[in-house]
Amino acid sequence: MDAFKALFADVPSISIVYIRSLIELGREHDVDLLPFAQELGVNDTLMASPEGNVSINQLLNLLEKASQHLNDSSWSFKLGLSWGLQIHGMTALPLFHRDNPFAIAKLALSNISLRLPFVALTARTDGDNLIVDLNENWPLGKVRRRVLDIYYGIMVRFISQMGKSLTICLDSDDPNDKTNIASATESEVKLNHPSNQLIMRDFTDGQFVPNTRTNDGGELPANSQTQQMLLLIRRQVMLDPGRCCTIERVAEKLGSSTRTLSRYLRSSNMSFSTLRNGVRSQHAERYLRDSSLPIIDIAERLGYSDQASFSKAFRSWTGQTPGDFRRSQTVREGA
Fold it and tell me: What value, to the nearest 5°, has the Cα angle with vertex 334 and ends 331 and 335?
């Protein structure tokens, strides 16, 4: 391992959601991986943090423990298969570039490679096929095959939703490696390939992202895509309406760009600040009505630098000061 990688190996750079998912998989197989995670420095506070991160070494070491204790030989492929777009921060991905499937593929693979930096995933077309190459960025040691299987599971989960046939190519000559994957997917698996690849057939036929349909099978109205995007943006704002709630941060969470989010908002005659203020107003009323938090603490939670700024904003939303609103709720309850 070179000096840079050795230095980077212990930097918290991988979302805690992957550790949580691995521990949950262990529980499903009656294996408690949490004590091993705690030995590696993953404490309760980190486990509970929505923004928590672990290091490459911590995740690799926990994967090694899982490999030692899980009896299901296909667990690593199934783990990757269980990771949908949400865990990779790409909930809104299918709404972007619907007319450009290659753009979707590149964006998705780039995002996964950044969030899980063990393997670089690169896409290229070859005739009617899409070829995804798996190039190892990191010395994976004893869990090399397991890590690669995880990436294969991730890609099968992503691509299988498009209704395409897949071929998984392994650089291994071990029949067990083929069996581990083949037992958990209907995709073709080949051994003794020059490199690790996934091949998606008939990529260029235009049938990549399925049309969104209503419950009765009909097509959704033309503006439904915008409505879905607004819901996703609003959901992210509601999760954290505080000082860090910026359009740049929300775009990052959704695997998109600020330009794309702004376009969707403009199409609904809305700005990001208007949407955020609406959410903050709802949160503020709830805190004032249902909690005994001091107003200064509510202001801080909602991203205001001082109580005066919050009071000014709240008055513009409701016509009342926070104190008057809280007292009015108390009087109403007493009545």
Answer: 90
Q: What is the largest CA-CA distance in the chain?
A: 78
* Cross-strand partners of 145: none
pLDDT digits (tens, 9 = 90+) for 258-304: 888 898 888 888 899 999 999 999 899 988 988 888 999 999 999 99
Phi, psi (degrees; rounded to nearest 5) at 251: -60, -40
pLDDT of residue 333: 57
Does position 28 have pLDDT exceeding 90, yes or no?
yes
User: Which range among 90-94, 205-209, 316-320 shows the weakest confidence by mean pLDDT?
Assistant: 205-209
Domains within the chain, CATH numbers bracketed? 3-205 (3.90.1520), 219-335 (1.10.10.60)
- CA geometry: angle at 191 spanning 186 and 195, to 5°? 110
Locus of tokens 């299918």: 94
Write the CB contacts of 158 (distance below 8 Å, at least 6 apart in sequence).
85, 108
Average model confidence (pLDDT) for the chain?
A: 85
Q: Which residues of 206-243 are buried (b: 16+ CB within 10 A; e: fewer)?
A: eebbeeeeeeeeeeeeeeebbebbbebbeebbeebbee
Please, which pLDDT band fits residue 218 given cuts at 50, 70 and 90?
very low
Q: What is the mean pLDDT of residues 213-226?
A: 46
**Amino acid identity, residue 158?**
F
Both tokens assigned to 300: 């801080």
